Amino acid sequence: MFILQNEEKLFQSSYPQALHGILGRNSLILVSGDVHKKLRSLALGMIGGTKSTVNFLPSIESLSISMMESWKGCKEVVFCKEAKRFTFNLMMKQSLSIGPDEAVTAQILEDFHTFMKGFVSLPIYIPGTSYHKAVKARERITSTIKGIIEGRRKENRLQNGDFLDVILSKENLTDEERVSLILDLLLGGHETTATLMALLIYFLAHSPQALQQLREEHLAIRKNKNDGELLSWEDYKQMNFTLNVIYEGLRCGNVVKFVHRKSLEDIRFKEYLIPAGWKVLPVFTAVHHDPCLHENPWDFNPWRWDDQATNKKVSFFGGGQRLCPGADLAKLETAFFLHHLVLNYR
């Protein structure tokens, strides 16, 4: 927390140069100072504005139900792939108002797979390498999104209520910054939220008691609704144990293991001296599995979150100026998905 709360004072984001080639210089992960403040504020505005639209919750639920239906009759489901497909389709809908059956969705998804394969590869920019393919895939995705932006402008239609509507209404943005914001949201939705969902399936399969209480919570919500009636914000507020499950999945699973920082000056912290310019890697996993902070830290125990003090012993969404802008969105999407999953599958 000392590192995260001193962003731009004592520490600054400092990721390997290779990531700049893949993510682009305007990515929220990479930018610092006033540029980061501006783009993060816009990201929060995009998400907040979209959440207030009438189609926001129905779009999440519609895709959840569609995913459940698509599994009927399957002998086996590769869940991590399905979760990524679900979150990607959802982010495409919320970001660009593009449905899962449209050709451009499949096109961007294919490039996204190539993009992600090179994300942690050796940074060798030679044709044929994973890194080179990833950089080229990002260029194609950028070109596709720019085409969508131009089409929206020409048609003069800003009434979809999606993320793109919000950022097109901001005149102090370049198109490169607009594309980077959309890419950041697609990346967060496609990778981190999908990974969380897959981890929860793993943990719940090993915790029958937690799965049973989760199912009971969602049965109680469903009993108060008519057949086919969609979930509401009020229903979401009743998903207390569901949020416990999500938080515990984040603590145990550690979707983001650590972040990259550098010291801006000589820093003395307790008995340590961190020289100016040194790389600093806050490892979230170490905090989340620390037996001094969490009793039986390796156990998946959603009930530990009944103690409000547990919230102060974790940092799975980061902290300070770089607190994840999509945190609430990820929790909502996961909760709605779990609602239909536990009511339809054992």
UniProtKB/TrEMBL annotation:
Q: Name one GO biological process term.
A: brassinosteroid homeostasis
Query: Where does it mainly reside?
Result: membrane
Annotated residues that bind heme are located at 324
- Which InterPro entries would you find in this protein's record? Cyt_P450, Cyt_P450_CS, Cyt_P450_E_grp-I, Cyt_P450_sf
| Assigned keywords, A-Z | Heme, Iron, Membrane, Metal-binding, Monooxygenase, Oxidoreductase, Transmembrane, Transmembrane helix
What cofactor is needed?
Answer: heme
One Pfam entry for this protein is p450
Q: Which domain of life is it from?
A: Eukaryota
Where does the record place it? Answer: Membrane
Q: List the Gene3D superfamilies hit by this protein, alphabetically.
A: Cytochrome P450
Tell me how this protein sits in the membrane.
Answer: Single-pass membrane protein
Instruction: Name any GO cellular component annotation.
Output: membrane
The terms under GO molecular function for this entry are: heme binding; iron ion binding; monooxygenase activity; oxidoreductase activity, acting on paired donors, with incorporation or reduction of molecular oxygen
Which family does the entry's similarity section mention? Belongs to the cytochrome P450 family.
Protein name per the record: Cytochrome P450 724B1
The organism's taxonomy opens as: Eukaryota, Viridiplantae, Streptophyta, Embryophyta, Tracheophyta
